[in-house]
Amino acid sequence: MALLEVDNLQTHFRTPGGINRAVDGVSFHVNEGETLAIVGESGCGKSVTSMSLMRLIPEPPGRIAGSIRFAGKDLLKLSDREMRAIRGNDISMIFQEPMTSLNPVLTVGRQIRETLMIHQGLDKQAAEAHAIEMLTLVGIPEPGRRVREYPHQLSGGMRQRVMIAIALACNPKLLIADEPTTALDVTIQAQILKLMLDLKRRVGAAIILITHDLGVVAEIAERVMVMYAGRKVEEAPVAELFRSPRHPYTQGLLGAVPRLGSSLTGTARRLAEIPGQVPDLRKPIVGCVFAGRCALATDLCRQYAPGLEEKGPRHIAACHYSAKGAVAA
Amino acid sequence: MTDTTVNPQSLPAGFVLAPQLPEILRPVTIRRGFLGFLRGHPTVAIGGALLLTLVLIAIFAPYLGSVDPTALAPAKRTRAPSADFWFGTDVLGRDIYSRVLFGARVSLTVGLSVAIFASAAGLAIGMVSGFIRWADGILMRFMDGLMSIPPILLAIALMALTRGSVGNVILAITVAEIPRVSRLVRSVVLSLREQPYVDAAVACGTRTPMIILRHILPNTVAPMLVQATYICASAMITEAILSFIGAGTPPTIPSWGNIMAEGRALWQVKPYIVFFPAAFLSVTVLAVNLLGDGLRDALDPRMAKSL
Amino acid sequence: MSLPLLQVNDLKKHFPVKAGLFSRKSEFVYAVDGVSFEIARGETLSLVGESGCGKSTVGRAILRLFDITAGQVILDGQRIDDAAPSTMRQMRRRVQVVFQDPFSSLNPRMRVRDILAEPIRNFGLAKSAEDLEVRLTALMDTVRLPREALNRRPHEFSGGQRQRIGIARALAAEPELIVCDEAVSALDVSVKAQIVNLLQDLQSEFGLALLFISHDLAIVEHMTHRVAVMYLGKIVEVAPRREIFAAPRHPYTKALLSAVPLPEPGAQRNPIILKGDVPSPINPPKGCRFHTRCPLVFDRCRVEEPVLRAAGAEQWVACHLEEGAPAASPEG
What we know:
Chain B: Belongs to the binding-protein-dependent transport system permease family. By secondary structure, chain A is of the alpha/beta class. Helix content of chain A is about 35%, strand content about 25%.
């Protein structure tokens, strides 16, 4: 059963330069315990999507439309008070930069405790004990001492562990991780990815992983949704997507990253370029959003926006030309 | 969003179209140019309009139904506001309306001059201490020393050394304001020096004077402009205080501080003598501060980058 | 053997840190602590490592954006670390830089034309106003930007286009070496590929040497001839691309390579997960600086600092496990 069902999500912003259609008609679902990755480049709307799920979009200048059904409730119809009860409790979020999302003047322990006291109604002693338990769970050495430390006393990797501990403290059903390892060094990223994989097995929360790093996606996602210019252009199980991407944008994206070890196997080649730039989302786009940069685009694409169609088992893409079942070029 | 011209019948079979979605926000009318900027930043518009009005009042003071602001009329002392004397008359029978209008000249002159001179001096000192390490220590300790004296006391002390004149008032307040400006400029310069484009300019062989002129100075303009408005406002208040306590503009020149000082003794029976100059001072300071706040928001690069 | 374009000998840069207002004790960040390498003409040497390892400091030292604490930087046989200002200005033309952040690396108040003309004028490269114009349009063509863009300001461009402007500015001086300080790290995947391809094309077209500073090992492998791996201000391994990626010798290099997630779902990898974090460069560990995290640590590592030793034809490793080979410095 789907834990989260998003239907035609639109998040627009009023800006002096026009209406920014940051997310425009995105539908997807997340099953219980599943990891969905949302992939795309900056400005594709992946972060705005996640902020919309948490209803963290300031209105105005923004506005969210569509429906976000979480465990049977439409989040967009809830009062602010009901939404606050869900945030950090049923759905929690970890961000890219742990330093700015932790309060610098409160100890780490207090920040975990407060979440527990607000949402779970624990008393101080119980919350403290649980906080230490959470820090142990995320692999922080000497948790009894660390609870009394402030965020600046911790390294970047430690802070991200603390963020994960806070996010998991209330046993959320859904965890939204927005670029959780982007700000970290590669050896620390390896630690955090391993932690996330371990925790996924032990905690069982569904995860929405937002990232631009295809390596991270391959590592922990089960299903992948590719976004471009505020729209979903492709969705497939992770192995299927990497093996036979159907949307020209996804193909371009996969061709644009060099593979480690390619110089040894003789598969080194010039990187595939996606020519041009992302379209300006403040102007209405006629036809396919990718037509301006696509080698296959025809007049049809420039005039009619393609809908998502099935290209293979559980594999959908929004392209007029990527044939059903055909192996991608 | 698909265009309304979509005609699904013209599509070959087997093509799927994206669903049509509604617009969820009213369209934005994009305003450009100077008027568009003012619509987008109402505080700038309001502050600017108020200030412009006051400047016009000051310039055209003789033609706005005023009489000689220094003309004594002992027979018409302390008249209440009326059709003849809009703001009433003071203890010497001088028309307060005329005195307030002419007083605007002093306030605005002092405010603008101090803003210009203090910014210029602060810019020079801040640049030097931001670029020359050994000078930085000396200059900043000296500025710290000056800053430890409240600006108003410093201005009073400086005025005590000289004769009261508008020029000396400007000089005294400027000296009192310089430390804060130079600190600001220095911090801006230090942060600009860390910018990669400055490093790139060094790598491009640009000499230090040119780096200051081309890469540092233009980028300090925006914060300086905002700071200058605050200096202007604070200078006008300081001028009024100096004049009020008799250490500022000589009593022969009508200034808002002078008028209030003269009305002080009669405050409880003839409040209008103090009220009108005070109201004008407040409105002027408010206008300048509104302008400053608006400019700060409009020029803040982080705001410009956001959605 | 021909003279290398750039030689760096035992480079050290220690930044003082203010301990406190009344503290007499002066502490230093040992950002770069004895680094030696060289770059041949037309060669790409990559400097890799995690944040705080000192790789960017090395790049900035070569550009002489500050004075170094000790060591030598020799460009084409001439020392530039202590060159007089007038000599230095002429030497600067030969080493240019492309920075990471395409937004802060261009002066927002200047037109592209003036940004590109700055090095040309400074180094007196244009003979006349017409020549300047010819050079400017040629630069725009080289970095594949439209010529009309010369009259626009940086904020009108996207990140990738700004990075092209940054590259054009570096090329304007007709340099022999370009320091690319995380030059593609801040860019989106598809734009990154465009810039990587552009840099490769330019290198073969102009015979440029590149010092490619990056933490992205896949891009490094794609771009580079040789790699130097840094950890806490020291080079732990230098080798040609093939050796580094096929047979890394230093435990840190091995861990670094194994930690990169591959864009291949289900790929069999056994990442070496290093414990803990990088120690502070203010108090680097005694002995081998990597010993606090090294999975193969033994007693000697904690007391004695390993030196770079030849471990192959062109491979140099600083690790006690690579004993047997005679100690030497990485010349050639």
